[in-house]
Write a structure and sequence with these properties.
The protein is an alpha+beta fold. Helix content is 42%, strand content 17%. Helix 4 (76-85) crosses helix 6 (104-132) and helix 6 crosses helix 12 (415-442).
Length: 477
């Protein structure tokens, strides 16, 4: 039609891709603080230089992964489609309009080629960046918790470890397929069964959740800034406190920081952990793992422990002396019943008697002094405040990761690949803390950019970072 411009699908025009990305786009804020040039050097050993067809730039790969975890894109195929169609994603990933987006199968091959160690190093470099910007102090408080995530495997994938039993179960399942109300139900445990699709996943259950194959993510964070300092994935059946001390030691060594205070829930409150940390000079806010610990009825009221001679004194002033035997960390204190024959408190004495035995016995845990010390501290308002702080910071962080940043369930099979998933989710959460800090400190400097030279603006920014770091760590101390 005359007077109208006809659309030409093949028309080409040179344009700046950046012009399509709005000024306040979140990826602009991330790009402003993130420098990934070190990735090429870090991954150099994974590529054969000058041989074969050109490989995908590892920086492009990591930028695509960050897009996926920032926006909760859980499929590699969908990620490639989104990057191809979304101009902001293209710009952030350093892909021009003429560049082909990597195929989703290439992303899987690159992940397997790089391996867990490379992703760990990239994660730790971002933590170092947080430390350089004042979000992590050289002396800090550390919070720790663990959460279960479903594995990418169903209960139907469980097979018996014994081949003969596995065959019997397979035959039974074949006979009962499609039948309702069958009386033949399998009894499965981690000791007898293993998943054929994901052997690393184990059965686990938390109150209020179904029993299924799961992994467990153990995380430690800076208590003030909520920067994730370490994340470790284990099978779902591993107890929360088993990787704990090694994780704290790793944090101190990797970042050259001193952990002055640790905060965690009851799952970490064993005597061995508390005593080890106290010997290292660390203040512990770890409640005892059970309310029954240290509350033996035989030690209440009438029995007084005398530490120096290591003995118990009853109401009549008689002494129970230690026996050499130790049973499950309990020491036995005994007295001959002949000492109690004329005692007016004999009928109400808490010391136990056994048939065909000439002794009264009291069992006392070797860590009883530590238990009583922690019980006293647990009633302190500061201790309760730390527990409340842990609740919203750690639980909130896990909720944020699961809801928005790709940690709701295992995307891959195998512990090592789920560990990579955990590293990427933690990277994104740490970048969010950096973006917040950047915006918090730079907003007051907007007017200064036009007034001062760039060197002056940088000095003002550094001064504000220093002041911010002092304020957040001053509150902690």
């Amino acid at each position: 039609m005359q007077g109208q411009h006809a659309f030409e699908p093949k028309a080409r025009k040179t344009i700046a891709l950046e012009s399509f990305v709005v000024k306040d786009h979140y990826l602009r804020k991330v790009d402003r603080i993130l420098e990934l040039s070190f990735v090429s050097e870090l991954t150099a050993g994974c590529y054969a230089n000058g041989k074969g067809r050109p490989s995908i730039d590892p920086e492009i790969y990591f930028r695509m992964q960050l897009v996926a975890y920032i926006y909760g894109i859980t499929s590699d195929r969908r990620l490639c489609e989104e990057v191809r169609d979304n101009l902001a994603y293209r710009w952030f990933c350093r892909l021009s309009l003429d560049d082909d987006v990597p195929d989703h199968s290439s992303l899987s091959r690159i992940r397997d080629r790089l391996g867990e160690a490379i992703f760990e190093e990239v994660f730790r470099q971002i933590v170092v960046l947080c430390k350089q910007q004042g979000l992590v102090s050289e002396q800090c408080r550390v919070m720790t918790d663990a959460t279960l995530i479903p594995a990418d495997a169903s209960l139907n994938s469980l097979v018996h470890n014994d081949p003969d039993e596995a065959k019997k179960e397979a035959d039974a399942q074949g006979r009962n397929r499609g039948m309702i109300g069958s009386s033949e139900r399998r009894r499965v445990t981690n000791q007898t069964h293993r998943s054929r699709t994901d052997p690393d996943a184990t059965l686990a259950q938390k109150k209020g959740t179904p029993r299924q194959l799961k992994y467990k993510v153990h995380q430690s964070i800076d208590a003030d800034s909520r920067v994730i300092l370490d994340t470790e994935v284990t099978t779902g059946a591993r107890h929360d406190n088993q990787p704990y001390l090694a994780q704290l030691e790793r944090i101190g060594q990797k970042y050259q920081i001193q952990i002055n205070e640790v905060i965690a829930d009851r799952g970490y409150g064993s005597a061995a952990i508390i005593r080890t940390l106290q010997q290292q000079g660390t203040t512990t806010y770890l409640p005892l793992w059970s309310g029954k610990v240290g509350n033996s009825k035989h030690l209440k009221g009438d029995m007084v422990y005398e530490k120096e001679p290591d003995r118990l004194r009853c109401l009549a002033g008689k002494h129970l002396t230690p026996n050499l035997s130790v049973y499950h960390d309990y020491k036995r204190y005994v007295i001959d019943v002949s000492n109690c024959e004329d005692c007016q408190h004999s009928q109400h004495c808490s010391a136990r008697t056994k048939k065909q035995s000439r002794q009264r016995i009291v069992m006392r845990n070797r860590n009883q002094d530590l238990f009583e010390e922690v019980q006293t501290r647990m009633r302190d308002p500061t201790f309760r405040l730390r527990m409340s702080e842990r609740m919203w910071k750690m639980e909130g962080l896990f909720a944020e990761a699961k809801e928005n940043h790709g940690l709701a369930r295992a995307r891959y099979r195998g512990r090592s690949k789920v560990q990579i998933q955990s590293y990427l989710s933690a990277m994104v959460l740490n970048l969010k803390r950096l973006v917040f800090l950047f915006l918090l400190l730079l907003r007051p400097l907007t007017a200064a950019i036009n007034k001062y030279r760039i060197h002056d603006v940088k000095m003002i920014f550094k001064r504000r970072v220093f002041q911010h770091a002092r304020s957040i760590h001053g509150q902690a101390s």
